[in-house]
Design brief:
By secondary structure, the protein is of the alpha+beta class. Helices cover about 45% and strands about 20% of the residues. The strands form three sheets. A four-stranded antiparallel beta sheet has the order 1-8-3-6. Strands 2-7-4-5 form a four-stranded antiparallel beta sheet. It has a three-stranded antiparallel beta sheet with strand order 9-11-10.
Length: about 240
């Protein structure tokens, strides 16, 4: 399954020829690495020479303040390329860490550029994916700045549920969901206690169940309404 998630993801932006799928598999099955949970994959200030493709597991990018507070600024799921064009920078301006045991492929910038040159449909899909990444960042900014804690949590859960569904990681109304309350709180700029209250409100409203690393979405339509969620920014069928 090394490349299946990224292939499914990119196919949401348009069909890929068999040769392009084969080229993606070669990259994904190349220089793979495994790290345990809660480990930095790359740190702020490091020289980013490669792009990391998530094969299995969850990761995040984050910024750490001097007093130890952490702001999570993105979640990376199976099939995601972490900071697609980061290799053109001289230094990382944020860190990437594993949230679960993580298997990922390291892809050189040269290899990624060659892939785009040889397979134009892959290049188009990758460019489309980079625009979706920017769209997600805009929605996260709205979560932090304008949506209430209740709305913001509902919005984030909708987003992650649909992103997982897009790569085939949702069964019926359930998905593996390894994020702790502390991690969700760091993504939404909330205290863990307040985050817990918002989860309870969503659970009491019979919209979700969050238990034993499993998220069950009982009423996606209403959860979207609570969040003011419009899936157009993900540019997939949601």
């Amino acid at each position: 399954m090394s490349a299946e998630y990224v292939i499914r993801k990119l196919q949401a932006f348009g069909p890929l020829p068999a040769a392009s799928e084969a080229a993606l598999r070669v990259l994904a099955e190349g220089r793979q690495k495994f790290v345990a949970a809660r480990r930095d994959v790359i740190r702020e200030g490091d020289d980013p020479r490669e792009v990391n493709l998530i094969i299995d597991g969850w990761a995040c990018s984050y910024k750490m303040l001097d007093d130890g507070r952490r702001q999570i600024i993105a979640f990376f799921l199976p099939g995601d390329l972490c900071d697609m064009y980061v290799y053109i920078l001289s230094k990382m301006d944020h860190s990437i860490a594993s949230l679960t045991p993580l298997r990922f492929a390291r892809i050189s910038g040269q290899a990624l550029e060659q892939l785009g040159d040889t397979h134009p449909r892959v290049l188009r899909a990758l460019l489309w994916e980079s625009l979706v990444t920017s769209s997600i960042q805009r929605e996260w900014a709205v979560n932090l700045g304008q949506r209430t804690a209740y709305e913001g949590l509902a919005h984030l859960l909708c987003e992650l549920f649909l992103r997982l569904r897009n790569v085939g990681l949702v069964e019926a109304d359930q998905c593996h969901f390894p994020l702790t309350r502390a991690i969700l709180a760091d993504a939404l700029g909330l205290t863990e206690t307040h985050l817990g209250r918002m989860l309870k409100r969503l659970s009491d409203a019979k919209l979700i169940t969050f238990r034993r690393r499993t998220l069950t979405v009982h009423d996606l339509k209403t959860l979207k309404a609570v969040a003011g969620f419009n899936a157009n920014y993900l540019h997939q069928n949601g």
